[in-house]
Write a structure and sequence with these properties.
This protein starts with 15 loop residues before the first helix and ends with a helix. The protein has 19 helices and 6 strands. It has 3 domains: 91 residues, Fumarase C, Chain B, domain 1 (Orthogonal Bundle), CATH 1.10.275; 234 residues, Fumarase C, Chain A, domain 2 (Up-down Bundle), CATH 1.20.200; 90 residues, Orthogonal Bundle (Ribonucleotide Reductase Protein R1, domain 1), CATH 1.10.40.30. It is mainly α. The mean pLDDT is 96. Helix 11 packs antiparallel against helix 12, helix 11 packs parallel to helix 13 and helix 15 crosses helix 16. The strands form 3 sheets. The protein has a two-stranded antiparallel sheet. Strands 3-4 form a two-stranded parallel sheet. A two-stranded antiparallel sheet has the order 5-6. The site of arginine has 10 residues, from helix 7.
């Protein structure tokens, strides 16, 4: 069979090696639904414009629909001589309709066609990602009531820093995910421009109505420059950047919970159904889902890198290099979607080891900063208070006791104005109760934020 892209200018067929090298059907078959949707809209527009008759459009629509159903069932074999998904569908249409099928590609090129398919696909996937991000936020939120009164160390430099409420941690992740959702929505707005009708590069002399096609496909706007249209892959790079940030957030969370699930931390118990065993050490319950979440982040970053390098230095307009955008784009979406699908139940179903966390809250002088601030509230300058409390910590360390165990004389020995009453801020509960500022671990503040997110996510 002669290939649809080989015109009469060619005297012979393509070398087999090139056919294998240049095919994209092995991966772009995933775009068949979008391709069919785009083609039906294009044909409908052509018929409204009088370029196709109503009956030609009806035949095209019904055959394309049935080709789509056959593709759903895997009944159309893929052949590398047909290169890509566009030609497979068009050829199937021509096989059924003959010359009417040959009219579909009027005022269209595969250059604007692939740009359209890809935008429709990315738009659908971004919607899925946003729904999953919202589910993950809800998983964290569901923990807030369950872990409401659990006090847990916050770390800086991975050293014990100050005590916080566990929900403060969960709200931190909800904030990160909310920014991710903001990026998804910003990105979607730029994705949602319609390339169809840009044709190969210069537009067309056929009287098309691009606004109409754009509307049929749910695009917010028509892309304005036919040269830009077929070269633009900003939306692909941008969407993969958005995914990379999500993966980065999930990777950080995964790392944290891997540490928390160690015997050394013993802060959290992961659901066993998301853990794996060891083939040699019978006692092992390994956090592989979290490790793979961290590990697969590398390939999402790699996908972003691939796309950036791919478009670097491409002149206007369509260049075949752009065919290579699909494997990294698909892989980044598949990977991040799979990560989110697993993070949702893991976050919801893991259990904090409350007794274990509590039993070691006295270690690490988590209340030292609260004590320093209490001194400042009594008039000491920050640097002075910092120094004096540091001296008290050194004393307590030397004796192997907590700050609260130091005597009134000990307090007075570093500052004659200090007396035992300052002890009220000591202990982690005292420290947590002492926070005041917006965004802090103050229990009233945290309760307000939980209530706000409950409203926002319902
Ligand atoms: N398979 C191609 C791609 O993914 C479709 C566009 C091909 N255009 C062309 N003029 N050869 O980019």
């Amino acid at each position: 069979m002669t290939s649809l892209s080989r015109s009469g200018v060619f005297a012979g067929s393509m070398d087999d090696r090139l056919a294998r090298f240049s095919e994209s059907i092995s991966f772009d078959h995933r775009l068949y639904k979008q391709d069919i949707r785009g083609s039906i809209a294009h044909a409908q527009m052509l018929s409204k414009q009088g370029v196709l008759t109503e009956s030609e459009f009806q035949s095209i629509r019904s055959e394309l629909t049935s080709i789509g159903e056959m593709l759903d069932r895997g009944e159309i074999p893929f052949r590398i001589e047909l290169e890509d998904i566009h030609m497979h569908i068009e050829q199937a249409l021509i096989d059924r309709l003959g010359d009417v099928g040959r009219k579909l590609h009027t005022a269209r090129s595969r250059n604007d066609q692939i740009a359209t398919d890809l935008r429709l696909w990315v738009r659908d996937q971004l919607e899925r990602v946003d729904a999953l991000l919202s589910e993950l936020q809800k998983s964290f939120l569901s923990r807030c009531d369950r872990d409401a009164s659990v006090v847990i160390p916050a770390y800086t430099h991975m050293q014990r820093a100050q005590p916080v409420l566990a929900p403060h941690y969960w709200l931190a992740y909800i904030e990160k995910l909310q920014r991710d959702r903001g990026r998804v929505s910003d990105c979607r707005a730029r994705v949602n421009h319609c390339p169809l009708g840009g044709a190969a590069v210069a537009g067309t002399s056929i009287p098309i109505d691009r606004e109409y096609t754009a509307k049929l496909l749910g695009f917010d706007a028509v892309a304005s420059n036919s040269i830009d249209i077929s070269s633009d892959r900003d939306f692909a790079v941008e969407s993969v950047f958005v995914l990379t940030m999500i993966a980065e957030h999930l990777s950080g969370w995964a790392e944290e919970w891997i540490l928390w699930s160690t015997t050394e931390f013993n802060f959290i118990k992961l659901p066993q159904k998301f853990c794996t065993g060891s083939s040699i050490m019978p006692q092992k319950v390994n956090p592989d889902t979290l490790e793979l979440t961290r590990g697969k982040t590398a390939r999402v970053i790699g996908a972003l890198q691939t796309l950036l390098v791919l478009i670097k230095g491409l002149p206007l307009a369509y260049n075949r290099d752009l065919q290579e955008d699909k494997p990294p784009l698909f892989d980044a979406f598949d990977t991040v979607i799979a990560m989110l699908e697993l993070a949702i139940p893991i976050v919801a179903e893991s259990e904090l080891n409350v007794a274990s966390i509590r039993s070691r809250l006295d270690e690490g002088f988590l209340d030292a900063t609260a004590l320093m601030e209490a001194c400042m509230l009594r008039g000491l300058a920050q640097r002075t208070a910092h120094h004096r409390v540091g001296a008290l910590v050194a004393l307590a360390k030397e004796r192997g006791v907590k700050l609260a165990d130091l005597s009134d004389e000990d307090f007075r020995s570093v500052d004659p104005d200090l007396d035992g009453s300052i002890r009220s801020v000591l202990s982690v509960d005292g420290a947590v109760a002492s926070y005041r500022s917006y965004g802090s671990s103050n229990p009233v503040e945290i309760a307000k934020q939980i209530a706000r997110w409950k409203m926002q996510l319902s």
